[in-house]
Amino acid sequence: MIKPENQVSIPTRIPAGPRLSIPLRFRDRRRVTILLTLIVLAYVTLMTLPTMIPNHFKLGAALVSFTENIKIMFLQPHLANTTFVTLLGALGQSILLAFLTTLIGSAIAFFFALASTRRLAPTYLVLGIQSFMAVIRAIPTVLWVLIYSVVFGLGANAAVVGITFHSVAYLTKVYADSMDELSPGIIETMQAMGLKKSAIIRQAIIPYLIPSYLSWTFIRFEINFADAIAVGAAAGAGGIGYQLFMSSSFYFNFHEVGVMVYMILAFALVLEIISYRLRSVTHQ
Amino acid sequence: MLTVNHLTKSYDGEKMSLTDVSFSVRPGEVTVIIGPSGAGKTTILRSINQLIRDDDGEILFDDTDMRQLNRRQLRQARCRIGMIFQNYNLIEPLTAIENVLHGCLGTKSNLAGIFSMYRNREKEEALQLLQKVGLGEFAYQQCRNLSGGQKQRVGIARALMQRPKIILCDEPIASLDPKSTVTVMDILRDLAVNDGISVLINLHQVDIARKYADHVIGINNGQVVFDNRAKLLSDVAIANIYQKNVNTEGSLVHEF
Amino acid sequence: MNSDVQQINRFFSKKRFRLTLIIVILGMAYVGASIGLGFQTHSLLNVQDGIAWLIQNFIPNEASKGYWNEILQQLFRTFLVAVAATTCAAIVSLFLAIVGAKTLTPAITVSWVIRAFSSLLRNIPIVAWAMILLFSFKQNDLTGFLALFFMTLGFLTRAFMETIEDFGTEKVQALQATGATYLQVIAQGLLPEIAVALMSWILYMIENNVRDATLVGLLTGTGIGFIFNLYFKSLRYGAAGLVVLSVIILVVSVELISNLIGRLLS
Ligand SMILES: Nc1ncnc2c1ncn2[C@@H]1O[C@H](COP(=O)(O)OP(=O)(O)O)[C@@H](O)[C@H]1O
Ligand SMILES: [Mg+2]
């Protein structure tokens, strides 16, 4: 399917500077890697799909019921067990939770990133911190919240700390990656002028980092908003997620779920607009 | 001023990049190092302020050996050595004046570096330096909006802000158009003649070297093959510097 | 001269003022949000309590060894479901993205419809997906699979669409100018060029879905998430610790494999 050699040659303007041509050997390696990965994925999928449908399962009935519920959700949203104001408050809680965890996470992660970028830190520190963060990242947010609800008691403290954990681990990696992309020449230049490390960080690294710092932090905010909802539902940590969980698995009221989903979608739309604006600002 | 004795360097422990390099640089003169790509020009320059650690030799800057300094002493010594790069290495998101002011941060405290605290005298000097290189009205422009020649001149102003005794220039004009080349080289020449700063420049354009240098050092395959006044740089000497037979390996290195 | 210095001072003061303003606003927002949520800042200083508790209680003990079989089995199922959901979603996404990318789309309205659809799928919370599906499909792997599938479909359609659009209009037009048909352009010009980018998106999503599968399992009562909840709620912490450990090992290995593939592709 994928044959890089057979591709039609595309007339483009020749870029200035030396042209990079990948030796055939490497192109082959890519092709083989992609093909092998696709084969493995296809095999796993084909083997798994049939085993997923349990015996005596009425797929047709399930599908009908599913479309019915989707219809109820989107076409007949209305409230029964709670009020709109309550839901608005719950949505606000989830947004605050996402905001607070992103703020704390981005501040802490910035320092971890400084200590784990190849541009500034010794290799053992880079490897140490990045492996530690990989382990933290590997544990799903909801497990962190569950664990901390036992230690701190169920509530805001557990939710904030739990979500922050994952945020720090994620942001440390992406910030450090952004710093790694900085040309080593820049830092060398500052060192050649005799600048101290603190001055190099403030005067050289931060100015370059700002655009990617903002966009990654914003992406993390979107993730944290989704996590705040999930955690509210799965760990009973409150917010719109908890309401969603109650309506769908306690009252089985999909009309109400519809209202909440619309509210969440409205906020997501706001975020999308902000992210669009942010991108056009940082990309100038 | 600056004397380099028996400098030796190998990056991989096998191939010698510098072999027994000795020369000295006099104040108030433009000294140009010429040689083919991969000859070791950059390695020499970066050894002087110890951006790369050489293997053996002696680098006497104001009678102290740069190689013997500890980290703090090295940092202090670097404050008085200006450096200019082929690709300018400015902090592009910041303005020209901020970049120039970075030149005096080496001698200031951590706090001053973090909060960009400069004395009025320093601010005045930074602006004067920008005016000196003809960029007075660009002081508040972000450097990423400047042209290549302008960026290089900001780079020079930044180096001058260090009040350097010597300025090291690694291919300062390799990315510039002919007109900017003349401007930049004129400024560098002026620094040597009027301010008494030693200027050490890596070049691979022989005609420019002839026009601007007082003293020329020719490098081929990590060895000094010419070390004399610029007016004695004959065509035979140039052919000798640029000959390729010494060691075919490694002398074909792409510059960027 | 003096007025020049004043101008520089004004420049730095303005920068400093802006920075201070941002810090003050964020600080106030922090305090406001903490009060609004009932969050106490000092609990950040007690983070180590959680870790200590984790280390004390989650150490798998003799009793928890008996759970290995069940955990490994559920872990493997969860992994399979995550991979299958990602792969299926990737296939549908690729089709949607090709039809929807602005550079290739047959009509711009189609592009907008697909864009809106993918945005809808992405932004419906996974909790809602899990709950609606649970109601109709009941407690089994299919529910988790579908929840992951819909989320991933939303993400990948958008990601693939952007990858294709980055490929550029001129290149597509240049290909069409050579007389290639629509399908030829896609199969021989486009896909080989973007295959590496698509692959890295798929690998990223698999990684993500293995993690999210735990959450979905928790909500729908299937897979590794379900047994974690079971052990945790019944205070069998040793066994729950074993689950956490196994999830760490799985996610880290998936990440390592995907890094390896990424390096082979670069
Ligand atoms: N970072 C490095 N690692 C290994 N070898 C290097 C490195 N930098 C330079 N070299 C080698 O050292 C020699 C001299 O390089 P360089 O000083 O950059 O030459 P020039 O600046 O004259 O072009 C070359 O043969 C090059 O291959
Ligand atoms: Mg060089």
TrEMBL record, chain A:
Signal peptide: none
Pfam family, one: BPD_transp_1
Subcellular location: Cell membrane
GO CC annotation terms, alphabetical: plasma membrane
Gene3D superfamilies linked: MetI-like
Keywords of this entry: Cell membrane, Membrane, Transmembrane, Transmembrane helix, Transport
GO BP, sorted A to Z: transmembrane transport
Chain segments annotated as transmembrane: 32-53, 95-114, 145-171, 200-219, 225-245, 257-278
SUPFAM superfamilies, per database record: MetI-like
Main location: membrane
Membrane topology, record value: Multi-pass membrane protein
Domain ABC transmembrane type-1, residue spans: 91-275
Family: Belongs to the binding-protein-dependent transport system permease family.
Protein name: Phosphonate ABC transporter permease protein
Species the sequence originates in: Secundilactobacillus pentosiphilus
TrEMBL record, chain B:
Ranges where the ABC transporter domain occurs: 2-246
One GO CC term, this protein: membrane
Keywords: ATP-binding, Cell membrane, Membrane, Nucleotide-binding, Phosphonate transport, Translocase, Transport
InterPro entries named among the record's database cross-references: AAA+_ATPase, ABC_transporter-like_ATP-bd, ABC_transporter-like_CS, ABC_transpr_PhnC, MetN_ABC_transporter-like, P-loop_NTPase
Tree of life domain: Bacteria
Any one GO molecular function term: ATP hydrolysis activity
The keyword Ribosomal protein is annotated on this UniProt entry: no
Keyword Cell membrane: yes
Protein name stated in the entry: Phosphonate ABC transporter ATP-binding protein
PROSITE patterns xrefs: ABC_TRANSPORTER_1, ABC_TRANSPORTER_2
Pfam families referenced in this protein's UniProt entry, alphabetically: ABC_tran
UniProtKB/TrEMBL annotation, chain C:
Any Pfam family: BPD_transp_1
InterPro entries named among the record's database cross-references: MetI-like, MetI-like_sf
Keywords annotated in UniProt: Cell membrane, Membrane, Transmembrane, Transmembrane helix, Transport
CDD domains found in the cross-reference section: TM_PBP2
Transmembrane stretches, start-end: 21-39, 75-99, 120-137, 143-161, 182-203, 215-232, 239-261
Example GO biological process: transmembrane transport
Membrane topology label: Multi-pass membrane protein
Domain of life of the organism encoding this protein: Bacteria
Domain (ABC transmembrane type-1) ranges: 75-258
A GO CC term assigned to this protein in UniProt: plasma membrane
Family: Belongs to the binding-protein-dependent transport system permease family.
Protein name: Phosphonate ABC transporter permease protein
Protein source organism: Secundilactobacillus pentosiphilus
Lineage: Bacteria, Bacillati, Bacillota, Bacilli, Lactobacillales
